[in-house]
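Appendix B: a complete holo record

For completeness, this appendix reproduces one full record from the ligand-bound portion of the collection. The bound molecule is fe (ii) ion. The inputs are the chain sequence and the ligand SMILES; the output is the full three-dimensional arrangement of the complex, encoded as structure tokens. No fields have been trimmed.
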Amino acid sequence: MTVSIEETRRPYKSWPNDAGFDASIEQRTPIPLKVTGTIPSFAAGTLYRTGPGHHKENTDRGEFRVSHWFDGFTHIHRFQLISTPSGCTVLYNSRRQVDDLLEIVRKTGKLDGISFGQKREPCTSFFAKLKSVFEPQRSGNPQLENVGVTIALNAPGLSSSSEKRHNVLTTFTDTSAVKHLDPTTLKPIGVASQTILHPALTGQLSAAHPAQCPLTGDTYNYNLAFGVAVTYRIFHTSASTHETSILATISGTDIKPAYVHSLFLTPSFVILAIWPSHIAAGGVKILWERNLLDAIASFDPTNPIVWLVIDRHHGRGLVSKFTSPAAFAFHSINAFEEPSLDAATTEVFCDVVQYHNLDILHKNYYYNLKSTGPGVADFIATHREGIKTHFARYRLSVPSTPSKKSRPTEIAKTYPLIGELPTINPSFATKRARFTYGVVDRGLSSFVDGIAKTDMETGENWIWEKMGHTPGEPIFVAGVEDEGEDGGVVLSVVLDGVKGTSYLLCLSARNMVELGRAEVLVAVGLGFHGRHIAA
Ligand SMILES: [Fe+2]
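The structure of the chain with fe (ii) ion bound, as generated:
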């Protein structure tokens, strides 16, 4: 048996987390988990978790490694929280999502197709590249398609049964491909592209996080088509009719193809921020590189963020455009709007977890991310400022009439140290929310080292932390009514890096103190996102 270089290295800052990046064990049949403390009964429901399980596979040609965390082999997890008089009991099952792809990797020792950041030999012909990038659901086989960043139950327009007799889970990624799973067994059951929503949505990229209206359940996203004329189509899918309409078709010399992971939504507008994470050569560089990250041009601090404000309800399309100084973000936190005192404008506020540049994309190579990764210490020393998160609240003054000129974009608030993978109390979406929850990297490990609750008005933080324990995205579950915005719990799957096993942690959302936990006997992959479906 070969011993890799990593296995001989000591974990960075004695905070081990490798087990969360090498988690390949699946549990297909639900099993009960041992609960200590109390998980309150109001948290009853199902928590789904997405993301990569493992990234290394033994092949006939030696060990194959996925290079980038965003490309790890998808593994979906399901925690059933069942209400009892004394709190929730918990059942757990999980399933790997790309067994056929893994089989090909084992046989060939390589990973074909377009990825986020996979390093490859430049050997494929131009036409083979063209074919693979322009056919996002190229195989038709869900076991071959690594689509697993976000997850939704019965997503508008995408549920396979129009009669709605069956529930369907759908996973999303940064391309226009979507994948369907059985919500109980987690078995992959289909793959499709956004053209099933609307024939005009033929572009290659999209946000992994569609925005969702908390009142109607309607979803909003963009579809980005590469080419000489780069085009963003902002679209809306109704949760009641399941029909999709194009709200705006946007192109122009200032509209660049970019990696944009999420959008903003207010009661009146969809807002797309095009970060200067531009894809070179009108997007076509992806064909040569066969991965998105190497196709993204070097960060140019003179390139602005371009903000596009699109009308949701009255067919007015693109109503305002703003620019602001360069920065990058994966995740919008929330957005809301308020009328100005003179009613001349609607003040739109967009809350975001922001970086000064694109360093974080390169930090997420396993080489720079795992606690024994050979690149960790150097990368952190060299890019310390670039990988720090900041909270930013942008203020866009949208004129009430087209004749009025827009005022410049301003940053209304900004604070250092804000959690990534940010979530809020979902009933405060599109309203002025005060609290956000996320995972923080304070430099104590190679990855993240705590969960922060942040007061977005003041910048005050409350932290849950435990040495050697690496948390995943915290999901807010509201408690009984009238307890206020932070009345509830946050659920996070945490890796105990010393033991190499994970547990579902339940914290009071008010004071970030542990209420209870449910222990999994294996490591759950350090993944991306999740969704709690109330019982
Ligand atoms: Fe995300």
